[in-house]
Write a structure and sequence with these properties.
globular, alpha+beta, about 35% strand, about 140 residues, SH3 type barrels
Length: about 140
């Protein structure tokens, strides 16, 4: 009966080692690299890592190399399908070209979140979250 229970601990990452993965972090960054190692806290080691940013129908990448990620900062971890990776209808541009637009997108999102939190606080009595919203 126990074998039917899904394995939901960090041990379930064993099948992901040596595969190309995308990791979305709590601060919104998206990293793509080959998962080389992990531990019981889901701390990850990515090799040949790039940071990717998006805006509209374009993207840019910046080389990061070997990357150690603390497990509590991981929001999402997913495998990149190598067969379909090149079929994505996005155009790659230089990082310096796209970075100002990406920063504008981040600032606009932050403004929307602050406005929403303020409305919830003033009209509905919800407390305002502090920092990154981790609720500690």
């Amino acid at each position: 009966m126990d074998s039917l229970i899904p394995f939901t601990t960090s041990g379930s990452l064993v099948d992901c080692v040596d595969r190309k993965m995308m990791v979305v972090l709590r601060d919104g960054r998206k990293l793509i690299g080959v998962l080389r190692s992990y531990d019981q806290f889901a701390n990850l080691v990515l090799e040949d890592t790039v940071e990717r940013i998006y805006h509209a129908d374009v993207f840019a990448e910046r080389w990061q190399g070997l990357y150690l990620i603390r497990g509590e900062n991981v929001v999402l971890l997913g495998e990149i399908d190598l067969d379909q990776e090149d079929d994505v209808p996005l155009r790659q541009v230089e990082w310096n070209t796209l970075e100002p637009y990406h920063k504008e997108d981040i600032a606009a999102k932050k403004h929307r979140e602050e406005y929403k939190a303020n409305v919830l606080y003033e009209q509905r009595g919800f407390c305002k979250e502090g920092g990154e919203g981790d609720g500690y």
